Amino acid sequence: MSIAYLGPPGSFTEAALSGLNVPTDSAVPYSTVRQALDAVRSGEAAAGVIPWENSVEGSVTESVDTLSAGRDLRIVGETLLRVEFALAVPPGDTLASVRQVLTHPVAHAQCRTWLHEHLPRADVVMAASTAQAAREVGTAAVPGCAAIASPKTLRRYGLDIAASDIGDRRDAVTRFVKVARSRTGSLPTGIDRTSLVVPLADKMQHLHTVLEEFARSCVPLTAVLSRPGGFGLGTYSFLLECEGHVDDPSVGPIVAALAQRHAAFVLGSYPRAELGRTALST
């Protein structure tokens, strides 16, 4: 069966597929994270690959919210991708003529300083992905329009690089996760990560007790992200990520306790990607 990913072709997500052992001929691009995950939920695709976290901008909230909205999918793997950004224009155009820039919100956040210094008056328009931005600018070829994406993607859509290496951080890395309809998830490897959601809603006063569960068991937390709880202002749900597998004797009891007391649920336990060992490059 096919593997869904956030497209179109040329996206950073497509570049991350090899790190998750996804054959190119089985990968099918979707326009949004929701569409990619819906394809997995419906059985149209066997699994999906989506961006999850960036070292500069933090979590990709669209991915976190869309995956957390249901309990039928699990993260089964992750990979890291070093990202590089460039700005490109249609052939014959120049940097000086740019009045509008298309890109993805996460890419924009990583190139904000460069844009402020070099194109302070340009309007920034958000696209579903950097590859979508490159495709739109390459197809329309409207003078004064530019796109921010990886250099390979920009050239793929027939654009000329007007400025290279425009990211605020040259060591930027994005984490991508593979999601599948799996009740059991991945088996422990000894180098794992567990992601779970704790829907505290209007019980924010219990957050310290949740965190104490990890501190008491000496299980390292790697991420704590608050998201709107869906019950009005001031209500929150939390994405927590920790080292270890849910089947580990140190992690399992924490997850069980949080499930009983706060209706927490696991998004996945899966092999943890390490920067020096597994990071890919665009």
From TrEMBL:
Query: What keywords does the record list, in alphabetical order?
Result: Amino-acid biosynthesis, Aromatic amino acid biosynthesis, Lyase, Phenylalanine biosynthesis, Plasmid
The Prephenate dehydratase domain, residue ranges: 2-181
The cross-references to Gene3D superfamilies, in alphabetical order and at most eight, read: 3.30.70.260, Periplasmic binding protein-like II (3.40.190.10)
Q: Which reaction does it catalyse?
A: prephenate + H(+) = 3-phenylpyruvate + CO2 + H2O
The UniProt entry's GO biological process terms, in alphabetical order, are: L-phenylalanine biosynthetic process
From what superkingdom does this record's organism come? Bacteria
CDD domains, alphabetized:
ACT_CM-PDT, PBP2_Aa-PDT_like
Reported EC number(s) for this entry are 4.2.1.51
Indicate the annotated site residue(s) for Essential for prephenate dehydratase activity.
Answer: 174
Pathway involvement of the protein, from the record: Amino-acid biosynthesis; L-phenylalanine biosynthesis; phenylpyruvate from prephenate: step 1/1
**What InterPro entries has UniProt attached to this entry?**
ACT-like_dom_sf (IPR045865), Chor_mutase/pphenate_deHydtase (IPR008242), Preph_deHydtase (IPR001086)
Q: Does the keyword Lyase apply?
A: yes
Q: Does the keyword rRNA-binding apply?
A: no
**Name of this chain's protein:** prephenate dehydratase
Origin species, per record, is Streptomyces sp. NBC_00008
